[in-house]
């Protein structure tokens, strides 16, 4: 009797399992419906323009003067990689990104966040407000402020004159350094906020145990604090690198890429090519190269975020 009942029930099991899977699939679809508007917006405003730009990069589209647009294959990319100004723009972009983001904003933001843990509440509030104030200033306004600071008759040379130190025209002799320092001033607040939040999550018992074992301040930072906040470091580096690669208004307001292309980064050169020389197709091809550079930086940082690296 029991064996017979079991034999009768056994074939029904796959039907029950299939029904359960169908129910779960239906629930998954229902739960995903609220995300549908966001997905549609991303497709329209993010994926759509990117696909459109990829198409234009393979054409000879002109802003004015041409009645037709023709497919030219890789001609724009061959022209770019045979253009000395294009290589100069890549070099200036990498110098600007390394100086202002990877070294400047990242290390200064970490240093300020570490010092905040030792400072009084009043001092933290004052310094934090000053740093964040530079971050909330619009990019073009920050550019004009930094132009007034670094120009030949600007505030920096007045300070150096008061200290009896040599002065120079920073925007003419060292333009890429001037715009890099300006970007450090403007963007350090973001790194400071990221690292302040990360340092607050470091377990106190770990640093106390390391101190009891005789570890100094530097050893505690290097062997305890830094490994604990490793993911925050990688995330911060990825975000500030991508943001810095696309900086345009700050550099354009301070130097317009000059003098003699000494501060012409890829966004500046792309603007000059596409909108001043009217070569939309060629300019779009260079913008795609900038997109690839950002993707390469992202891959490096995502590698550091992988769980296998723990």
TrEMBL record:
<feature type="transmembrane region" description="Helical">
    <location>
        <begin position="233"/>
        <end position="254"/>
    </location>
</feature>
<protein>
    <submittedName>
        <fullName>Amino acid ABC transporter permease</fullName>
    </submittedName>
</protein>
<keyword id="KW-0813">Transport</keyword>
<dbReference type="InterPro" id="IPR000515">
    <property type="entry name" value="MetI-like"/>
</dbReference>
<feature type="domain" description="ABC transmembrane type-1">
    <location>
        <begin position="91"/>
        <end position="301"/>
    </location>
</feature>
<dbReference type="GO" id="GO:0005886">
    <property type="term" value="C:plasma membrane"/>
</dbReference>
<keyword id="KW-0812">Transmembrane</keyword>
<feature type="transmembrane region" description="Helical">
    <location>
        <begin position="127"/>
        <end position="150"/>
    </location>
</feature>
<feature type="transmembrane region" description="Helical">
    <location>
        <begin position="170"/>
        <end position="186"/>
    </location>
</feature>
<dbReference type="InterPro" id="IPR035906">
    <property type="entry name" value="MetI-like_sf"/>
</dbReference>
<dbReference type="GO" id="GO:0055085">
    <property type="term" value="P:transmembrane transport"/>
</dbReference>
<keyword id="KW-1003">Cell membrane</keyword>
<comment type="similarity">
    <text>Belongs to the binding-protein-dependent transport system permease family.</text>
</comment>
<feature type="transmembrane region" description="Helical">
    <location>
        <begin position="280"/>
        <end position="302"/>
    </location>
</feature>
<feature type="transmembrane region" description="Helical">
    <location>
        <begin position="89"/>
        <end position="115"/>
    </location>
</feature>
<feature type="compositionally biased region" description="Low complexity">
    <location>
        <begin position="1"/>
        <end position="17"/>
    </location>
</feature>
<feature type="region of interest" description="Disordered">
    <location>
        <begin position="1"/>
        <end position="20"/>
    </location>
</feature>
<dbReference type="Pfam" id="PF00528">
    <property type="entry name" value="BPD_transp_1"/>
</dbReference>
<keyword id="KW-0472">Membrane</keyword>
<feature type="transmembrane region" description="Helical">
    <location>
        <begin position="33"/>
        <end position="58"/>
    </location>
</feature>
<keyword id="KW-1133">Transmembrane helix</keyword>
